[in-house]
Amino acid sequence: MAGERSCAAFLLQLGLRSIAAGNTAAARARFEQCQAELEQQVEAGQQQQAAGAGTDNQPAGGSGPADVLLLCRLGAVRGCLGDCCRAEGDAEGTLAHYQESVRLLQAAGDDAEATQALSVALNKVGELRHLQGDLAAAAEQYAAALRLRRALLAARQRQWAGEGSGEPREGGSGAAAAAAGEEAGAGSEACCSAALDLAASCLKLSGARAGLGESGEAEALLTEAEALLQGLDAPGQLAAQPERLRRKQASLAQFAAMMQRQRQQQQVLDKRQ
Questions:
Q1: How confident is the model over 178-224, as pLDDT tens digits?
Q2: Could you give the CA distance from residue 260 to residue 223 in angstroms, rounded to a whole number?
Q3: Domain range holding 240?
Q4: Dihedral (CA of 19, 24, 25, 29) sign
Q5: Is residue 123 part of a domain?
Q6: Is residue 245 situated within a structural domain?
Q7: 209, 262 in Cβ contact below 8 A?
Q8: 14 in helix, strand or coil?
Q9: Is the whole-model pTM more than 0.70?
Q10: pLDDT tens digit string along 61-115?
Q11: Is residue 121 a contact partner of residue 148, using CB atoms and an 8 Å limit?
Q12: Total structural domains in the chain?
């Protein structure tokens, strides 16, 4: 919603600034107001769709880009409300908001933005279950997020391959070549970000599987995460990416190394026993 001049966008920005400053009470109030604004927009859209259903202007059933966008935004705001509850120690409220966020994002369909947001929401539910000690439920949520992120990475790679195919554009001007280069760079960044998200999901699920005693799958997931991170660390691959992605790669690589050390220590203990 960046750059959008609307009441909902303004309230969301206020809420995000409040939660960043640690004022969860103010953040919750702003997010609830934002949610109410978005729900009114959804209701108005549904009424308009119902009024025009079956006409030439509006076919019955289905959802358009505006509906998907609103569902994505509502899902994000419910996730933010869950974050407020989590900061306040309200586990029941946190879970309720996160689960509603998942429901809304699932309703948005196969939109790439919605799918990415859904993977985050599923991981949040998984983390909450993990903290509650329910590793089986946590693993189920992590696995669902992992499947989504595998598909997202594959889609990003296919898109990047098409953009970077080197096929000449009509006119062959310098401006066209520059535009092609910008598209390829954006594709590379999107692929890098998707690969990092997938590596993070592998590490989350690996930890849960290890806790459940499923050492074989845990090791395979850890190996997959390490391969993804090492692939990004190839010469020139990560250097061209934004600093936030470089920091994320370094942080995940450090966490993966720690998990590998723990696994090796456990193997030594198992042998001694």
A1: 344 444 445 688 899 999 999 999 999 999 999 999 999 999 999 99
A2: 9
A3: 144-162+188-273
A4: positive
A5: no
A6: yes
A7: no
A8: helix
A9: yes
A10: 445 667 888 889 999 999 999 999 999 999 999 999 999 999 999 998 888 888 9
A11: no
A12: 2
